[in-house]
């Protein structure tokens, strides 16, 4: 029996060619393969992976298996899979459950499948590690275990289509495999989390005493959030808008909601394309940064009826609301590059007239007669409408992921439940692994200089509170 669900296994050869190219741009991951190919520090690890099933993720998966892990994989978004990458992975025998455009029901059933390893002595197998992006795989297990242990009312009334599909999947698993969620939760040695939104969820769980295992916050490695979130979005935001709409960007007025790491990259992306960019913020520090980077800082109410392109980057909910969309000009473009689709009130548009233009592009008619173009139904557009970030920046992110998995698998018992970040020496190592590829020459500190600024000659070069 084939242990995968993908679009088409015949796409594997194309996927493999793109993987081969991606490897040449992912020096961090390739260096880890070299360093650990003999010692195989992930032997025995059964990793349930929930992260956009792209070409770059395929290189991550093959690095984890080269280091000895068994892996099962799903995408963490219904639109982000690259079907040829999924096919290339499935062809190698690694179970992958990911189809671009899968339904929400399929999404949660695929999330369930990533945990179902054979060979741990039980009829219904378990994973012992989670590699998560946005926290859905972690949520599935922890919520399922709480319901299994008597908190039935937790899944009584779904608040959204997402929750409805999640709760249905939990009910199904509870009926099919009594006791499985609890066994699965107890089998987890640790989780490494990729993104800002997932990290928020982990800190929240820990605060409430609901996180039973250690977690490594990969997002807040400097070589992740200050690179992927920023420089990644700088390349992939405009790529997504262009592939979706082919609209002339130069001269248009674009609004970026949020000026955190993703907002900084997104505003730079649009400015680079010649758009006149405005920013909204709630945080005075980020608002001041935006202003001093040369962006006009406005409220959405002030610009809803005059801007051409609206992009949310906040990780917050209800940022672009129905009243904003009703005020927009004809053919305004609306999209989100934050993790979840609730940044835009898409649900409130469901009773409007929708015309599908092509996959992940819809035109929606407002009561005034004006139309808006909505990208990826409000889900992250750089992965829905384009192919996400380029390989080089994902190499930095995923090198942190692999180091986090090694640390938790080897030393998980030394950590109490809680959320940790990787030590600065490893962060600097990740950066160092990416220098040669782009011809960066480092200056070496002399002993006297190192003593003078109070660091070791080979680093770490900064204190933990340094902000970059
Ligand atoms: P961040 O915390 O650095 O930035 C978010 C910013 O939004 C903050 O400055 C905050 O003050 C601001 N904000 C919050 N509510 C707001 C509101 N109502 N109006 C205007 N501004 C508001 O977070 P980061 O790292 O920039 O991540 C943002 C989101 O993007 C998260 O959901 C994250 O998971 C996701 N992400 C997406 C990526 C992609 O490839 N699409 C890559 C990396 C992260």
Automatic annotation (TrEMBL):
An example molecular function term from Gene Ontology annotations: hydrolase activity
Compartmental location: Cytoplasm
Keyword entries, A-Z: Cytoplasm, Hydrolase, NAD, One-carbon metabolism
Annotated catalysed reactions: S-adenosyl-L-homocysteine + H2O = L-homocysteine + adenosine
Cofactor entry: NAD(+)
Pathway membership: Amino-acid biosynthesis; L-homocysteine biosynthesis; L-homocysteine from S-adenosyl-L-homocysteine: step 1/1
All residue ranges annotated as the S-adenosyl-L-homocysteine hydrolase NAD binding domain in the record: 229-388
EC number: 3.13.2.1
Class in the EC hierarchy, top level: hydrolase
PROSITE patterns linked: ADOHCYASE_1, ADOHCYASE_2
Textual note on the cofactor: Binds 1 NAD(+) per subunit.
Residues that bind NAD(+): 195-197, 229, 258-263, 281, 316, 337-339, 382
Amino-acid positions noted as binding substrate in the UniProt annotation, renumbered to this chain: 54, 133, 194, 224, 228
UniProt family annotation: Belongs to the adenosylhomocysteinase family.
NCBIfam families recorded: ahcY (TIGR00936), PRK05476.2-3 (NF004005)
Biological role: May play a key role in the regulation of the intracellular concentration of adenosylhomocysteine.
Name recorded for this polypeptide: Adenosylhomocysteinase
Source species taxonomy: Bacteria, Pseudomonadati, Pseudomonadota, Alphaproteobacteria, Rhodobacterales
Name of the gene encoding the protein in the UniProt record: ahcY
């Amino acid at each position: 029996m084939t242990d995968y669900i993908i679009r088409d296994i015949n796409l594997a050869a194309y996927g493999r060619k793109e993987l081969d190219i991606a490897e040449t741009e992912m020096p961090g991951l390739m260096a880890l393969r070299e360093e650990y190919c003999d010692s195989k520090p992930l032997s025995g690890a059964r990793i349930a992976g929930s992260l956009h099933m792209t070409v770059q993720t395929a290189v991550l998966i093959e690095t984890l298996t080269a280091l000895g892990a068994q892996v099962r994989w799903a995408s963490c978004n219904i639109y982000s899979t690259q079907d040829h990458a999924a096919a290339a992975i499935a062809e190698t025998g690694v179970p992958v459950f990911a189809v671009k455009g899968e339904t929400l029901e399929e999404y949660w059933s695929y999330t369930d499948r990533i945990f179902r390893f054979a060979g741990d002595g039980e009829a219904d197998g378990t994973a012992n590690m989670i590699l998560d992006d946005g926290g859905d795989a972690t949520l599935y297990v922890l919520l399922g275990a709480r319901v299994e242990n008597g908190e039935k009312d937790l899944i009584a009334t779904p608040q959204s289509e997402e929750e409805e599909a999640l709760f249905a999947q939990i009910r199904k698993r509870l009926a099919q495999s009594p006791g499985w969620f609890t066994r699965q939760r107890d089998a987890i040695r640790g989780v490494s989390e990729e993104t800002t939104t997932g990290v928020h969820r982990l800190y929240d769980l820990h605060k409430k005493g609901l996180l039973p295992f250690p977690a490594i916050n990969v997002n807040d490695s400097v070589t992740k959030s200050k690179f992927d979130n920023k420089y990644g979005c700088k390349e992939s935001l405009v790529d997504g808008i262009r592939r979706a709409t082919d609209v002339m960007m130069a001269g248009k007025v674009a609004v970026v909601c949020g000026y955190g790491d993703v907002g900084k990259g997104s505003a730079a992306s649009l400015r680079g394309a010649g758009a006149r960019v405005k920013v909204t913020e709630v945080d005075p520090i980020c608002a001041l940064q935006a202003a001093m980077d040369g962006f006009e800082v406005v409220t959405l109410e002030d610009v809803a009826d005059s801007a051409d392109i609206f992009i949310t980057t906040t990780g917050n909910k209800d940022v672009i609301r129905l009243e904003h969309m009703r005020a927009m000009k004809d053919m305004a473009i609306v999209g989100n590059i934050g993790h979840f689709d609730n940044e835009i009130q898409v649900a409130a548009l469901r009773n409007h007239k929708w015309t599908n233009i092509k996959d992940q592009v819809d035109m929606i008619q407002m009561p005034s007669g004006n139309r808006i173009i909505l990208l990826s139904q409000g889900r992250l557009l750089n992965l829905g409408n384009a192919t996400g970030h380029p390989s080089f920046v994902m190499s930095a992110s995923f090198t942190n992921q692999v180091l986090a998995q090694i640390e938790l698998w080897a030393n998980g018992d030394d950590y109490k439940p809680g959320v940790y970040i990787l030590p600065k020496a490893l962060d600097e190592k990740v950066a160092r692994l990416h220098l040669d590829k782009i011809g960066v020459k480092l200056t070496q500190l002399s002993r006297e200089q190192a003593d003078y600024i109070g660091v070791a000659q080979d680093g770490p070069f900064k204190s933990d509170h340094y902000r970059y």
